[in-house]
Amino acid sequence: MRNPITRVKKIAALIMCLLLVAAAAGCNGDGTTPPVEGGTPAQEAPAGGTVTLSGVEFSTDPVTLTAYIDWPHSGEGYGWGQDMVSQWITETVGVTIDATHATTATGEELNLMLASGEKLPDLIVTNGFGTIVNNLIRQGYVLPLDEVAKEYFPAFLDLLPGGLYEVFQEDDGHLYRTADWFADSERILELVNSREDKAISGGDQTLCLNKKYYEQMGSPEINTLDDLRQYLLDCREKFPEVTSPFMPMRLMWDQATDTINFIYRCYGGQSWLWDDGSNTLQLCLRDPRYKEAMRFLNTLYQDGSLTDTTLGMSTEDQWTALETANLFAYVGQDWEWFSKIVGGSELSGPVLPVLAPMAEGVSRDDLKLRYNDIANLGGNTAVFISKDSENVARAIEYLAFEYSDEAALNNRFGLEGVAFEYVEDGGVRWMQSLLDYQNEFGWSEMSKKYGPNNQTHSWFTTGYSMAMESPTGIYPVKLYNANLVAPYLKNERLFDLSKTIKDDDVRMKYDQFMQLTGEAQIAIITADDDAEFEAEFANFVSQAEALDIKSLEDYYTANYIKWQGRGFTAE
Amino acid sequence: MKKEKKANKFNLKENLKYAVVRQWDLQLMVLPAIIVLIIFAYGPMPGIIIAFKDYTFNKGIFGSDWVGLKHFRSILTDIFVHRSLFNSVGLSLFRMALLFPAPIILALLFNEVRSSKLRRFFQTVSYYPYFVSWAVVCAVVPIWTSTQTGWVNAFLQTIGLIKEPISFLSEANMFWGITLMLELWKGIGFSAIIYIAAISGIDQEQYEAAIIDGASRFQRIRLITIPSIAGTISLLFILQISGIIGGNFDVSYMLGNPSNASRSMILQSYTYDVGLLDGRFSYAAAVGLLTSITGMILLLGGNFIVKRLTKHSGLF
Amino acid sequence: MTKLSIFKRNPNKIKQRPSEAIFGAAVMVSLVILMIFFIYPFYNCIVLSFNDGRDATREGLFFLPRVFTMDNYSRALRAEGFGMAAVMSVLRTGIATTLSVMVCSMFGYAMSKNHLRFRKLYMTLAMIPMFFSGGMIPSFLLIRNIGLYNNFLVYILPGLFSMFYAIIFMGSFREIPASLEESAMLDGANHVTLFYRIILPVSKPVIAAISIFTAVGHWNSWMDTMLYTRKEGLNTLAYLFSKVIFSAQYLQSLVESNEGGSGGGAAQIAAEMRGATSTSIMVAAMVLATVPITLIYPFFQKHFTKGVMIGSIKG
Question: Which end of chain C lies in a sparser environment, N or C, as judged by fewer CB atoms within 10 Å?
Fold first, then answer.
């Protein structure tokens, strides 16, 4: 019998050969990937100089800041210095970011780093909503940015979007983290109003119709919820092959695009909290109008316009449905559909957003839609300066730089003249060359080259940059007049602030409640008859009370009063 | 006689002497394992005390404040722990009932295949799913069960079992079925191998004698094969029971979502969620401790049952 | 071996009763159906891995790729450090499996002797950690304090002993007839030599089985790489592939939660990512990750043969 050891060796050798061959084969690029450009090393700015942006002087000395980014790396090719924007940042203010990414999205590695007392990098970038934020702040791992700014770079506070400091300061009065997607309402409204075209898109909560079927149906008026219901029934009769007549894009409490919340607002409701006039906050499930909104969705379900299959779709499935136009109407973001079309640059996609249909007896004047661009508190991403940083002065300067208008625009759009250009109404728009590139190679390749929203550095997306995007001709939507939308936005912001939870035990309550809503709302919507609807709804309420949501509501009310005391009014 | 009875009392010195002098070879064989255990298994164990503390990073394990039974009291009112417990135990019972006999049956089936080439082919195929890690499987299951493009729905619709595609991962009632089937698919080959190995140790003469006596195949299985591997079966039975409070973390964690949460949440995934995502390490440690204690009780119970019911000695 | 062949080929032509034939047929049929269910999911994945990602999301793929492409594989293989990770995985699996099997089998053998002093103590000592563990943070701190952080040995040492496998060894060693041992002891061997010269060769099936289990465990293990190492050179294949999977899932979850204003870039990235980057690459990675281990398996499988015992007793 042959010596078994040689056999093992032979097999092992065979495997190694196979792997190496495969690896070598993989090295030859093929398929639709753009030709790899030799990365031009970022030129360093002359030392000792300064550059002025947004009226503030920044140093141009080269420096490398280390960062830990608490989410998985976006994939091959995303690295500092690969795209135009990060190159521009290094050339302009001399900063290079040396980042390490987490492997998973659950935060094990950051927690271990803190537990083990390891030296922390200059910057820590995390999801702004996790409990790690509280831990970092309360246990002293991060520095108060306002103090640091006052000592090293006071201009930071001027460049912060208006209102951000007030909203994100901790109870001890200090600001520890930056926030992105924060809407500086006044400035944004100013910008929008300065444009000729004062209309804005429907935003996160829009009813969108499939244009193709809508035109074939004779473009009927849909002004009320009953109209919508009837429209769906009529469409189904004429086009029975469509399997997802009505598609709610998201059914999730506290999500801006939540369909239930949209319908609730069509009844005159607002947000997920409810002030019945007594200056206290209750969860909206206590509001009779919320129940009516649920009833409407249940009606659609009982009609058969909202199917189980649709409710159970994964995001991938939803996109397939959008792409194959397998629906009559959906509620979600107005640009959601057309952006799924190749390259996202189709101007005349099959989507037609319409004004929100109102419930019976509710006038459009009472409609309070959530327009995220102006109301958004953001804070999805938090950037901290750690206590171990040895480059504190440059770090705070970098944060300030990122909030300058030039940096904000470039992070969002790429470089002027190469990626974006100014248009007639004063806003900016992507250039055709970029859109062509995107069409051919896809968004992520485009972002790797030109830099828009590149995860390597765009942690600071500001409301200003959002507002600068000219909607003219890009989005097939122009629904609302900015002035219409503005007045109740302050109210929305007050509610959002009241909803912010900083206490761990309350957070646990909230998580439990969230679990409950996920299941209960589906159960209510899919009730087979009215009796079951009533039963399920009552069940929801009683389960919520068993969870002691009263303590949650009390916490919210306390916040409500506190923020009102800080000058946020409920108009 | 009296002297013997006295000798039964445990004398440490005597035993140590005996062990070192007369049993040095055996004791040496046990040593590496014990060393590894003490360092890596018992080393971190003092960390369990954070279940009785309010652990924060900067105070460390030993510097954090004592809170006694506060977390355990919270557990009593935590509906998610109750639900997780229900799912963990329920799933485990079904797992014992369905997934425990399955590999035995499979091993027996394999044993009946005449051609060794065919038998090896079947074995290889059945074992293949074990090679794939759970992370990958869970990442792929949504594709398989997709209502638009998945083959599971397409298959069921083609054979006429269902009319509309079912979104399997959104139905809470289906979750247990899904988990068990995945575990079966993935693990049956694994366990079958152990039984195959045990069967291969059976003395062939018994079979020949039985054939000459005219026993049918079925009888041969029932009267020879099964009793011969009874020891292995009972061993694995006890081991499985010890995992009864366990459950499949990967499946629950990755395939769980709000729609099926009422059935997908198990103790391990809830502990993980609370511990890492919420950062409440002390509370998670308390839930973990409770889980462990319950599992231990069940193991001792299972061992006791096996000892009573069969001639084979249990673990203890 | 000759006795076995009688059983298999049935040259004495003992007439099969019809029930036997039916039984045999039933066995084959059920096995074949089962095999289909084992193979098809993989086949489906292989088909998906060779198909263009975007196209795969349009309609289901069942038997053949619609838009054939090697793109997914080349992108999966281009993961940085692939070659080194392959070496690391092989090294780790090989060394850890060999050592681990040795440690567990020795322990199991010694424990199978009822006259072992302190046996009950060892038993209890080994069983307790099956339920209780210190938790992630204490384990991490221990690894650091010992100096195993960022060290290749962290792949080998902590996992050396598994009570689960030790118990299986224990059980199988118990089944070995005492006569075997006695004959060797008569020649003056101690237990260690007895173990290596006689017991192990006789227990080939069990050893092969446990070896394969351990090997697969090590091959697929990625979490220890993530938690206990930092050097890129210590990455394993399993870890690389897990990173690919998590990146894709993360972007997916961004879209599903959809925080942030309209026109959000993250959502657009994800919308794009559903192309070649996410699921099809994942599937290609899955196929790649399982190929090496399956090559080894048939080699081990040879050892699950019957009647190995007979020769050694009679001889």
Answer: C
Which residues of chain C make contact with A443, given a CB cutoff of 8 A?
268-269, 271-272
Nearest one of A361, B32, A193 to C108, comparing CA atoms: B32
* Helices B281-309, B230-242: inter-axial angle, 10-degree rounding: 150
Q: Is B169 close to A308, i.e. CB distance below 8 A?
A: no
Chain C residues touching B28 at Cβ < 8 A: 192
Model confidence over A116-150: pLDDT tens digits? 888 999 999 998 877 788 889 988 999 999 999 99
A144: which 2 tokens? 């108060």
Domain boundaries, chain C: 17-74, 78-314
Both tokens assigned to C81: 């450090």
Domain that holds residue B73: 53-309
Domains in chain A, CATH or no CATH each: 50-184+376-468 (3.40.190.10), 206-370+501-565 (3.40.190.10)
ipTM for the whole complex: 0.77
Closest Cα to residue C62, out of A323, B159, B152?
B152
User: Quick one: pLDDT at residue B8?
Assistant: 57
Instruction: Measure B118 CA to nearest chain A CA, in Å.
Output: 23
Interface test with A, best of C245, C250, C253, C259 (most A CBs within 10 A): C259
Q: Taking CB atoms and an 8 Å limit, are C134 and B43 in contact across chains?
A: yes
Report the C-alpha gap between A148 and A144 in whole angstroms. Answer: 6
Q: Which has the minimum average pLDDT: A204-218, A279-293, C187-201, C229-243? A: C187-201
Neighbours of B20 (CB within 10 A): 11
Whether residues B122 and B235 share a domain: the answer is: yes
Q: Could you tell me if B171 lies within 8 Å of chain A, comparing CB atoms?
A: yes
The residue with tokens 């009014």 is A569
Residue B240: CATH number of its domain: 1.10.3720.10
Average predicted confidence (pLDDT) for chain A: 82
Task: Tell which B residues from 266 to 285 touch A, by Cβ distance under 8 Å.
Answer: 272, 274, 276-280
- Distance between CA A93 and CA A45 in Å, rounded? 7
CA C32 to chain centre: 24
pLDDT confidence of B131, banded at 50, 70, 90?
confident
pLDDT at C247: 74
For chains A and B, count residue pairs whose Cβ atoms are closer than 8 Å. Answer: 92
A157 band by pLDDT with thresholds 50, 70 and 90: very high
Residue of A nearest to B262 (CA): A519
- Chain B contacts of A252, Cβ < 8 Å? 258
CB distance C259–A29 less than 8 Å? no
Taking contacts as CB-CB distances below 8 angstroms, the residues of chain B near A511 are 278
Measured between beta carbons, the chain B residues lying within 8 angstroms of A258 are none
**Percentage of chain A with pLDDT > 70?**
83
What tokens does A330 get?
């959906």
Check whether residue B105 and residue B211 sit in a common domain: yes
Distance CA A558, CA C240 (A): 48
pLDDT at residue A486 greater than cutoff 70: no
Out of 2.60.120.10, 1.10.3720.10, 2.40.30.170, 1.10.10.10, the CATH code matching C78-314 is 1.10.3720.10
Burial class (CB in 10 A: 0-12, 13-18, 19+), B15: middle
- Among partner residues B15, B39, B208, which is closest to C7 by beta-carbon distance? B208
Asked if B64 and B33 sit in the same domain, the reply is no
Tell me whether residue B160 is in a domain: yes
Q: What is the mean pLDDT of residues C104-124?
A: 89
Tens digit of each residue's pLDDT (9 = 90 or more) over C125-148: 998 888 787 777 888 889 988 989
pLDDT for A571: 58
